[in-house]
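Anyone up for a design puzzle?
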């Protein structure tokens, strides 16, 4: 099997619960080398969610299509990134020092900060999607899932990995990405953005980046860099910001048309 196909399947296996062929001769380094395909896998996950959203929108309107689309993503990934968001909120919010914060992140139990972050995050995504027409919502899901994983790859490049890789819940943890691998990931993440509705993509990217930046800085200050949980939180926070940003752009466009 060609190496790049192996790396893509490795990314699928790592990020989702989807069945893939047995990867013979698997090496721990494949996870890092497969990171270039994380956004591409995100596009496929987003596409599945988009199909659910569009199909459900032909029957219902409002919250139900949005919730079904989000549920589809959770089922495909096994709540992989949502778990990271909850653990990161617990660790950064509840730990008194670096060692305690990292220990909290490794704990499988969820605390107050994690429950609030998870609940509010899912609610914000559903509320934003519920305001979008079927086609725009479907596009936004694809773009958000791809770009969210692209944001996580950028953080892998810009921040150091902290903690023992063998102790990480992401086994093995992706580390040591080259500039070429990051650029490849960025290209994949940007594919749906090139066909975005006018005036919508900027708001999504801007708010996504605005939410990710303080989280990345907080992770660097409080624990010294990123962990697997932090990467999951980065992906989720970008998704939330992107979807809310797109819904904000839609509201501004509607207000402008109404005022005109």
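Challenge accepted. My sequence:
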């Amino acid at each position: 099997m060609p190496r790049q196909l192996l790396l893509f399947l490795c990314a699928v296996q790592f990020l989702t619960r989807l069945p893939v062929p047995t990867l013979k001769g698997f090496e721990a380094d494949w996870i890092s080398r497969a990171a270039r395909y994380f956004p591409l896998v995100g596009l496929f996950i987003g596409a599945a969610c988009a199909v659910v959203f569009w199909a459900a929108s032909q029957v219902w309107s409002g919250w139900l299509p949005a919730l079904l689309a989000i549920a589809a993503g959770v089922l495909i990934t096994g709540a992989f990134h949502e778990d990271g968001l909850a653990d990161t909120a617990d660790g950064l919010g509840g730990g008194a020092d670096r060692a305690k914060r990292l220990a909290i992140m490794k704990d499988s139990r969820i605390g107050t900060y994690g429950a609030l972050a998870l609940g509010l995050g899912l609610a914000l995504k559903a509320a934003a999607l519920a305001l979008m027409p079927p086609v725009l919502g479907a596009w936004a899901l694809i773009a958000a899932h791809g770009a969210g994983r692209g944001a996580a790859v950028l953080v892998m490049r810009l921040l150091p990995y902290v903690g023992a890789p063998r102790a990480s819940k992401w086994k093995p943890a992706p580390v040591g990405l080259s500039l070429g691998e990051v650029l490849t990931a960025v290209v994949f993440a940007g594919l749906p953005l090139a066909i975005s509705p006018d005036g919508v993509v900027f708001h999504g990217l801007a708010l996504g980046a605005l939410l990710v930046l303080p989280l990345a800085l907080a992770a660097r200050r409080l624990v010294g860099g990123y962990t697997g949980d932090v990467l999951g939180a980065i992906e989720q926070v970008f998704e939330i910001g992107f979807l809310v940003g797109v819904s904000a752009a839609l509201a501004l466009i509607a207000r402008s048309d109404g005022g005109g």
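A detail worth pointing out: The chain has a mean pLDDT of 90.
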